[in-house]
Design brief:
heterodimer; A: 435 residues; alpha/beta; 2 domains; 10-stranded mixed β-sheet; 10 helices; 19 strands; 23% helix; B: 252 residues; Rossmann fold; 6-stranded mixed β-sheet; 4-stranded antiparallel β-sheet; 9 helices; 28% strand
């Protein structure tokens, strides 16, 4: 069976011919693009071609629920709503789906048939699959994911926790998951996407999120990549913010090793496109690299409309032989006068063998804007370390405390209180800080 | 309790302390005065274990143990406390959490369990009162945005929390207005007891109006050139350091 036939078969039940056509053209685009090599400018420091297994399969691994999945779900705070996917398959029996007026949460597969108009209008419309290799692949072959729609003027007060589990398979599955969130005018919602390797051996996945923030609406999204050892994860987050809308994304990556060697490769592409006046975007990130983990954050804030504001705050802590990449771009179009855009990237290198490639970029075509960026790479402040040690705190603990203080600022920006608390606890665990 | 013998210390290949000698017994208050650049702060930093300072030769024994072999944090857990001349601002760490970590590090060193939350809060409340500080101080990041006086009071607060046996005050009085000076001195006076010794480094005799020293030493050219009682401080206040410089011109 050819891959095109495969797509047609997968979506035989998708009544909307337009969506099938879009996916076919995404596949055609992927055929041309292929997997990027490090010669590609955007993949210069992340040689993904050599990291991905050569014989990847688009058939997902078995989605039988194992003990690791159950234990992790049990360890989560009691969120009001949770949506669980395992290897790209929705598990309604593990999920708590909201039944709130004006709010729809279901699997993307279900939405393809039950919300055809919305899907047709939004699915694949934010990602640039003609140029983005993995967005093209995902658009063509998406397994499943979450669909969220909030009608006008609805404030959703409890966060929607979307859990994507992955387990290893014999066939080297390259699982394609995807979220689509549409929040209409005047509404607000908080969403978490938690990605977790539920086996101790290698998993590969490619995730896309498309997020639409309507007029005067607000979305806070937190991407959790909390134990990415032995995972190769490629994430694309595309958002569009209309007039007076507010979008905030925090991407938290911890490469805590659980097997002694972390082969994690995490790539995060995050884009916020501000298309209406007075829109605001926060794109924040915190990443911890250990052993030979590789964590790459590519950020783009695209100021299309005038009078918009944006902030980027990225902080990294790199240990052992881990490597980081920060590529943050602010793009201010000609019409985007009175833009106020700020970017800050800071990385702590806690070992001589850790390294980071940091590349801030400003491209400004309007003449009345305020833009600034700052990038710093360094070690912990020696004076601060001595101050703590002069009070009897060991060097090790002082290092942990100062690293906690450095990292905590990013978590402080997470709006949802239960998720913020959850992350704060994770950070304390990670750093063995016990206050 | 503290015995310094023929201590020679340098930093960046420049020798600062030269054959420095000092004995401090339990419960004594010693003041060290002297012009700028004579090695007063070097002495304090060396005793606290700052690694930038290189001990070239000499001995320092603290309660019978070799202080120079201990790391900075070990010295603190053993009971040495340095009130910093320039307290460090640490954004993101509250004074409460800082003190919790410090108090429990010392307890662990002494084979004790971490202090329970209720006792800790009680202890904090009691020690805050000593330096007339508000509870809000402790929930703020360490020294961040504090005035000069607040920073120095925070040093004395930490000293009170950790109950050291040797307190090194490095120009704690510099830059303080009379009110803050009174609070700081009052804190020190309340902490004074028969087992706790103080080494107070100062430029100004003013502090010694509030804290009465048992001994006053004058440092010049990296060593003590004159020792006496509190009347020596008064003489320095009246006559300045010129007569000291003249008497010891061969040292510089």
């Amino acid at each position: 069976m050819s891959l095109i036939e495969n797509i047609e078969k997968q979506f035989a039940n998708v009544s909307n011919a337009n969506v099938v056509e879009l996916r076919k053209s995404a596949f055609t685009a992927f055929e041309k693009l292929g997997i990027p090599s490090s010669r590609h400018e955007e993949w210069k420091y992340t040689n993904i071609k050599t990291k991905l297994n050569e014989r990847l399969s688009l058939t997902p691994a078995d989605s039988q629920v194992n003990a690791a999945v159950k234990n992790y779900i049990a360890s989560l705070p009691p969120y009001a709503f949770r949506i669980i996917f395992l290897n790209g398959v929705f598990h309604p029996e593990l999920s708590i789906v909201p039944d709130t007026k004006g709010l729809t949460v279901c699997s993307l597969k279900e939405a393809f048939s039950s919300h055809t108009t919305l899907v047709e209008k939004h699915f694949g419309k934010l990602v640039n699959y003609n140029e983005e290799h993995f967005a093209a692949l995902n658009t063509a072959f998406v397994n499943d994911g979450a669909f969220i729609h909030v009608q006008r003027n609805v404030a959703v007060n409890e966060p929607i926790y979307i859990q994507y589990f992955f387990t290893a398979s014999d066939v080297n599955a390259f699982t394609q998951t995807r979220s689509l969130a549409i929040v209409e005018e005047g509404s607000s919602i908080q969403i978490a996407e938690d990605f977790r390797n539920a086996s101790n051996i290698n998993v590969q996945y490619n995730h896309v999120s498309e997020v639409y923030v309507g007029k005067n609406a607000s979305i806070d999204i937190v991407k959790l990549q909390l134990e990415v050892s032995n995972s190769i994860g490629i994430h694309t987050l595309e958002s569009q913010v209309e007039r007076d809308g507010r979008f905030s994304a925090s991407t938290i990556t911890f490469s805590s090793p659980n097997t002694g060697t972390s082969n994690a490769v995490i790539r995060n592409n995050a884009t916020a496109r501000l298309i209406g006046e007075n829109a605001h975007a926060d794109l924040n990130g915190l990443y911890f690299g250990k052993e030979n983990a590789h964590i790459d954050n590519h950020i783009l804030v695209d100021h299309v409309a005038p009078n918009c504001t944006s902030n980027q705050l990225y902080k990294g802590v790199l240990n052992d032989e881990s490597t980081g990449v920060f590529n943050g771009k602010i793009f201010v179009r000609q019409d985007a006068q009175k833009t106020n855009a700020f970017q800050s990237s800071k990385a702590l290198l806690l070992s001589n063998d850790a390294s980071i490639n940091s590349k801030p970029q400003l491209e400004i075509f309007a003449d009345d804007v305020k833009c600034s960026h700052g990038a710093a790479v360094g070690q912990l402040d020696e004076n601060a370390l001595f101050y703590l040690r002069a009070r009897g705190i060991t060097k090790e603990e002082a290092t942990q405390i100062l690293t906690y203080a450095f990292a905590h600022e990013v978590i402080d920006h997470v709006h949802s209180k239960p998720i913020r608390q959850f992350l704060c606890d994770k950070l304390k665990d990670e750093l063995k800080v016990n206050f | 309790m503290l015995s310094i013998k023929n201590l020679n210390v340098g930093i960046a290949e420049k020798q600062i302390l030269r054959d420095f000698n000092l004995e401090i017994k339990p419960g004594e208050i010693h003041a060290i005065m002297g012009p700028n650049g004579t090695g007063k702060s070097t002495l304090a930093s060396t005793l606290a274990g700052k690694e930038d300072y290189e001990v070239l030769s000499g001995e320092v024994s603290f309660n019978g143990k070799n202080l120079l072999e201990m790391s900075a944090d070990e010295r603190a857990r053993e009971g040495v406390f340095l009130a910093f001349q320039y307290p460090v601002e640490i954004p993101g760490v509250s004074t409460t959490n800082f003190m919790k970590a410090a108090v429990n590090a010392k307890r662990k060193h002494n084979g004790l369990e971490p202090m329970d939350a209720k006792d800790f809060l009680k202890l904090m409340k009691e020690k805050l009162a000593l330096v007339e500080m508000n509870k809000e101080f402790t929930s703020r990041s360490i020294n961040e945005g504090f005035s000069g006086g607040e920073k120095k009071r925070n040093e004395i607060f930490q000293m009170a929390m950790l109950e050291p046996t040797l307190c090194l005050l490095d120009e704690t009085d510099s830059g303080l207005d009379i009110d803050a000076l009174r609070i700081v001195a009052n804190g020190v006076n309340q902490l004074k007891n028969k087992d706790r010794s103080f080494l107070i480094i100062t430029h100004y005799q003013r502090l010694l109006n509030y804290i009465v020293p048992d001994y006053v030493h004058v440092m010049y050219g990296g060593k003590i050139v004159k020792s006496g009682g509190k009347e020596l401080a008064l003489k320095l206040e009246e006559q300045g350091y010129d007569w000291i410089k003249e008497e010891n011109s061969e040292l510089v």
